[in-house]
Amino acid sequence: MPRFEVSQNLRIVFFGVLLLAFAQVFWWIWDQSQYSNEELTRMTALYEADARFSEQQLAAGVDPGLVTAIFPHVEVVGVTARPRPAALEELEARRFSRINQYRWEGGFFLVVLLGMMWLLNGTIQAEATLRRRQEDFVAAVSHELKSPLASLQLTAETMGRRPGDAESRTRHVRRILTDVQRLSTMVSNILDSSRLARGDIELNPESISLKTGVDIEISNLADRASVR
To answer: For the chain, what is the mean pLDDT?
Structure first.
């Protein structure tokens, strides 16, 4: 069964939260838009009702100035009354302003949410990459440690079973020293890697001879092969 990474679980959770947040914001914008439309319809109907009532008061002989003073959103023309166009335009402008405000607020929230999700996803990705590198490092170190340890064990068993002559013992001792040096170098490299990760070591790049490095490695491999 394939391994299900924690980072994959977190990505699924974050994606679900993001979809839920998007749906919630869009629903909120739609709901507020509907409410603004209903409010506009209600206020328009109220203005029209005030206009009809004003006509009744005008028919009863009430002074038009008193009617407009009581209902400033009503316009009196002769014996008729109607909502002022400016008042209706103000209602429409208020509705548009509220809807625009909801859209801006919802858009800002979504942008912030996307930014946070992007940062969290980057953090999760970096953590997953670091974990894989640590696992690869442990596997590589385990392999590199196993090789010289196996060589040391083989040499010790050989010396124990077949003491041999002085030349053979010298060859085996040299092999042991080579493997010990290899282990010591490996431990030093591991410690240096830890110091580098903490920033305790400052790197000073310098040019090296590729031929020299290759010659040294060939010499090491030849020494290891000669003592087998």
So the answer is: 80
